[in-house]
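Re: the multi-chain job from yesterday

Posting the exact lines I submitted so nobody has to dig through the queue logs.
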Amino acid sequence: MKSKYKFIILALFATFFIVHTVSASFYYSDRDWMDGFEDASINTTLWNTTTTTSGTCSGDQGTQSASVVEANDQVTISTQANCPAGGGSRFGSGKFFTDKNYNDGYNYRIVGSINGTITEGSGGDSAVQVYISYGGDGSTDVLLGELSEADIEILPINYTILINNTGAVFYRNGTFVSSNNLNTAVSWNVLYFASSSSNNAGSSNTDLNIYDYYSQTSNIIVNLTFPTSNQSVIQNNFNFSIEAPLFTGVNSTIFLWNSSGSIVNSTFIGGMGSHINSTSQNISNLNTSGTYKWNVFSCGINISSSSICSFPSANVTFFYGMMENQIVYNTTSFETAFESFIANVSSLFTITSANFWYNGTAYATTVTNPASSNYILTNSLDIPLGSGSRNFFWELISDTISINTTSNQQTVSQSYLTLCNSTISTTYLNISFKNETDSQQSVSAQISAIINYWLGGGTVYKTLSYVNTSSNPSYPFCFSPQQESLSTNLSMTYSNSESQQRAYNSNLDLTNTTTNKMLYLLPTSLGQYVTFQIINPAEQAISLATISINSTTFGEIESKNTDSSGGATFFLNPLISYTVTVVANGYDSTTVTITPTQTIYTIQLGGSSSDEQEDYSRGISYSILPSLASALSNNTNYSFNLTLTSTYWNLDRFGFSLTNASGYYLGSGNSTSSSGGVVNVNANTGNNTLVKINYYWLINGTYSNATAFWTVLDSSGDSWSIMVFFNDLRSYIDVGFFGMTNFSVSIIAFLVIFIFTGIFSYKYGLNSPTSIMALVLGLVLFFDVGLGIIPNPVGAVNYFPTIFVFLIFIGVFIKEVST
Amino acid sequence: MKKGQVAISIYVSIFIFLVGIVFINFLIPDVTSFRTSLNCSDAENISDGTKLTCLFGGTVVPYWILLIVSIAGGIIINKLSI
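And the result, structure tokens for all chains:
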């Protein structure tokens, strides 16, 4: 190479080695290290050599600088320093992996390289060194290993540092350098710097690269991530992760126990060797709702070839079969306020009912089932009295199990009505007084008041009892929380020295917009007591009737309830017209206008609230088949009919049920036809001795019913009776019996009647036509009605032969008697 | 006619009546099995001769009752008429 080109190259190199100022500032940086590890405790600190070197770097220190760069999966600490003449031992350095604990349970492996150059002064040695140090800045560090000695040609260096709970081992370019024990009393750092021997100048421009870092736990760490403790789930998946860096052959086994402690499932998962391995495993045979416990047992081989297993000390308890999707409620509320609580849950078991537990008190829950496994639980209530944090949850109940949802909290604040003061100053109600006179002077009065107040529906309320025996012109009542609307029931009496006592009773809805209520007092000299007696049409006293006295001039004067005698007394001006309104439950309200010149008035209220007794059999007619007058045969199918007609009421439902003598159910039927109809049930009498029918109709929610029965006769074993003979004869004739027809049978019957009558008449001397006709009538009756073998003429009434002979008999009898 | 003879005849007739009624219990199962074996209830599928046999068989018990009543009654009436 020509000399001029060599010079250029050297010049470029010289230019390249610029002396920089090492930053005098300390800074930390947290890095994301390679291989998926993050360790926020790895700090890189670069320091001013003047403060961190143990030696003296006198004279012009030039510029020094350092930087940290993370790129391309490596961290690079670049340092440049210049220590002029006078020397110093260490410069251009930094530290990393700071303040590690000796017994943190981790083993470390740091792999990297050192590149760059070190320029040493004459007669000195320079080096790049990596220390495990105790103490902060290197001044008290202890050298546990060095990677290189002086000489720029040594760089670059590849290094590996292994640090465990015993000590540190240093490798340079793959060769063991040294191993040293750690001081157990203090935390340690890894320091890096360039150095030169004392009294020699030097400079360095080096990069410490770290591109491989493992922080290996001494044990396998198992984290159970899903389901967590006391969680309710409906999924069969179990999620967990293991930390097992530098372990090999790692496997895990999921264990699942039921509430009795029996193992439900154990699932082996192999091939989990990695630094961090998260997995989700489905347990397919988990299909019964209930409380379970699970855990994971993991084993692996560490870098020391030892088998290490880990089993978290606490099993995780969870509930399978229910999952909370959403719970809607107000996190804050007030006493007596109306609040709604809604829970949306998914459940694998059928929720038959639920209770809502609020602050230890159970309330019935409305359960709806919009989808197959989705349930909506709804509760609304007035918040009970008392302030503080209130826990609530739902108790879900099925046929087999009971499970609670997670407990939530609601913060309840006080609601407070009181006479206005400095603390509670938002006036809701202001009561003031005037005279019931033409001049309507404002006056003062003393009051005794009971105010029931509530924010919600009124099932929970608070009571303010206020008595002031000294007269005041007004009484302002304030409420907190001032943004809420309030419902009240006010009952008070008021009076002063000049006027008679009056009462004021009212239900008021109040807001933070003040309601001004003016009450009137009538001076004693201007009025008289007037009693109103309230009676019903039967002239009976009506108690607890509300009497309100109003004046067109002054408005509402007074209101009271009647006592047990039906009376209430007011102090009224006999010169003024008042409107008296009387309201009582179950009666029509009445309003009268009077000028109370009398001391007693009687007011009769019309109407009665008592319900008339309805006759639900009105317009109802029915018939039952088979006829209740007939007996049934056993082991026979019958069609039981109820025909019911309603001409007055609209039927909600009607029908009947059949039972035997023991109450055993035989059948039933019903109809919802509003005007009636037919209900039919086919049933077999079996071997029962009695069949009972209970028939009913339902009108306006009122049942009307009755019972009847049939006797069931046992027709078996009667094959020997003479009835069987004639039944068989009839059936045989119907199907054909020796060619006999109905006509031939009737001829036979005629012959039998004729011969029998002749024999009897001859044998016993029956000469009277009447007696002979009676005998004939009897025989015809037997063959026709009894046996049914005498044919009936077509179109004739039933049993026409018998009727015909009977008429002849009557004629003969009359003729003989008249003769 | 001695009164004793009347009384004895009453006792005898009662005895005959009771024995005869008891004997009916032995006839009934045989009559039932007789009718069952001939299938007397199925009028459409039996011959006329079988029907006639069923009719006669069905009258056995009524005839027996009539016989017993006639014998018992006849003994009493006979002694009373003497």
